[in-house]
Design goal:
single chain, 404 residues, alpha/beta, Rossmann fold, 7-stranded parallel β-sheet, 19% strand, globular, disordered C terminus
Length: 404
């Protein structure tokens, strides 16, 4: 099947073909016709399955280019994801006269205000979008389609009140179309969709990456071996692009710093504590292959859409099982193979057990013989204690317990 078989507008089909998008994915085949017919849609599909095009393509068909007012609004949980969605809209509308504006915090309001005056489609984060609504710099009276992308993550991050406030500022229910997309769907999401939708259709495709493409495994180690094992794996695997996930900003910075001190110079950190300009540069450089290892938190990593990531390392086990699914969804994309490795310590057992509820094929591997490396914090090297030392809690253990 091709996009033309879905009765997609020829200008959009031509633009899609330029970027190698000729045959629609399963979520696109299921969702596009429903959206074209005006149904409210809630779509669940694995990360990297083409959800953005599933709602972007029919949305572009519904835009009246003669009306320079916002006619469609897309909310996403992170700045990076909002930018990437906006870029996709720009690609797909290459042969149409549609103005796409991306709004997010951390940058000046004034340029966004000027662009919003002639916007057809607005893509934004909840906080900054709500800010524009309250300032009356974003006019929602002509909005016909509203999309909540990565709705699962949006609710996890505590945006539910902002989301509901934005929805209440939209035109009346009968005058708008609501679209909800995510990799996982909870009862809270279903309740939200049912409260604000009129003729909801549910679309669900494969929610996990195929076992033939993604290999999942884990190592069970003493927490003092974690960094040494990470360095060993990065040398052994020799993958193209690698994302290492940590649970905190502090841990991301520490791991990145120690990787560079141990010879992994093509490493970089990304988390919410960096400026937007810095985060943009990191993502651009990672795309361009200027460095190999990206160390990230879940918030920053959720906005990454990079097709050639071949290895995911869970240096810290995520607190929520849904975050694990989203992390491993960063690899094995677009039909490529990938690998996901988790590094467990005793304190991770309870969290990892929750992940195993998904019945994922995760293989346990024996810890190899590895060289113990120094792990430095604040410029001070912490020497590992000898095995025969009595089990007392030293400063390194206290710090690790706090950060990990």
């Amino acid at each position: 099947m091709k996009f033309s078989d879905l009765n997609v507008e020829s200008k959009i089909v031509e633009a899609l073909s330029i970027y190698g998008l000729v045959e629609p994915t399963e979520i696109q085949i299921e969702a596009i016709p429903l959206i074209q017919k005006g149904f409210d849609v809630i779509g669940q599909s694995k990360t990297g399955s083409g959800k953005t095009a599933a709602f972007a393509v029919p949305m572009l068909e519904k835009i009246d280019e003669r009306v320079n007012k916002p006619q469609a609004l897309v909310l996403s949980p992170t700045r990076e994801l909002a930018q990437q969605i906006a870029e996709e809209f720009v690609k797909f509308s290459r042969f149409k006269r549609v103005n796409i504006v991306c709004v997010y915090g951390g940058v000046s309001l004034e340029p966004q205000i000027r662009k919003l005056q002639r916007a057809h489609i607005v893509v934004g984060t909840p906080g900054r979008t709500l800010d524009h609504i309250r300032r009356k710099t974003l006019d929602l009276r002509n909005v016909k389609i509203f999309v909540l992308d990565e709705i699962d993550r949006m609710l996890d991050m505590g945006f539910i009140e902002d989301v509901e406030t934005v929805i209440r500022a939209l035109p009346k229910e009968k005058e708008r179309q609501m679209l909800f997309f995510g990799a996982t769907l909870s009862n809270a999401i279903l309740n939200l969709a049912n409260r604000f939708s009129k003729n909801l259709e549910f679309v669900q495709t494969e929610t996990h990456v195929s076992d033939t493409l993604l290999k999942q495994c884990y190592y069970d180690v003493d927490f003092r071996q974690k960094f040494s094992l990470l360095a060993h794996l990065l040398k052994k695997e020799k993958k193209n692009k690698v994302i290492v996930f940590c649970n905190t900003r502090i841990e991301v910075d520490l791991i990145t710093r120690n990787l560079k001190k141990n010879g992994f110079f093509k490493s970089a950190a990304i988390h919410g504590g960096l400026t937007q300009a810095r985060r943009n540069r990191v993502i651009q450089d990672f795309h361009a292959g200027k460095f190999q290892v990206l160390v990230a938190t879940d918030v920053a990593g959720r906005g990454l859409d990079i097709d050639d990531v071949s290895l995911i390392v869970n240096y810290d086990i995520p607190k929520n099982p849904e975050d694990y699914v989203n992390r491993i969804g960063r690899t094995a994309r677009a039909g490529n193979k990938g690998k996901a490795i988790s590094i467990l310590t005793e304190r991770d057992y309870e969290q990892f057990q929750k992940i195993m509820v998904y019945d994922l094929p995760i293989e346990r591997l024996e810890v190899p013989q590895i060289k113990r490396l120094k792990f430095e914090r604040d410029g001070v090297a912490k020497r590992p204690r000898k095995k025969k030392t009595p089990r007392t809690i030293d400063d390194n253990q206290i710090y690790s317990s706090y950060c990990l």
